[in-house]
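Practice problem 4.
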């Protein structure tokens, strides 16, 4: 049996816990990372000072996703001046070439 001291979260009073050796080792080994992994607990939203950012991320993950309908088609604009009064005059058909693969359209 192993007896150790700890402080429960939210209190400043120490408490003791007595566990069998196997259970104590299981608790300790839960904190050991596998080979090749590194702890990144002090980076980005995992940093202790990033509590507001973490709360925002959690709220965004819990919020329902709202999808809007398809966007409305805007009139075509001129690539040079940006004016939106382009009118299609005619369509030029491609020449058929046996070595080129064409779409069905």
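Answer key:
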């Amino acid at each position: 049996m192993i007896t150790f001291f700890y402080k429960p979260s939210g209190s400043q009073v120490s408490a003791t816990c007595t566990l069998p050796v196997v259970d104590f080792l299981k608790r300790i080994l839960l904190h050991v990372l596998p080979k090749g992994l590194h702890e990144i607990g002090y980076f980005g939203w995992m940093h202790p000072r990033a509590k507001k950012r973490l709360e925002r991320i959690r709220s965004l993950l819990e919020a329902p996703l709202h999808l809007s309908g398809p966007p409305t088609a805007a009139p075509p604009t001129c690539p040079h001046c940006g004016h939106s009064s382009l009118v299609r005059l005619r369509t030029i058909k491609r020449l058929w070439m046996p070595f080129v693969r064409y779409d069905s359209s």
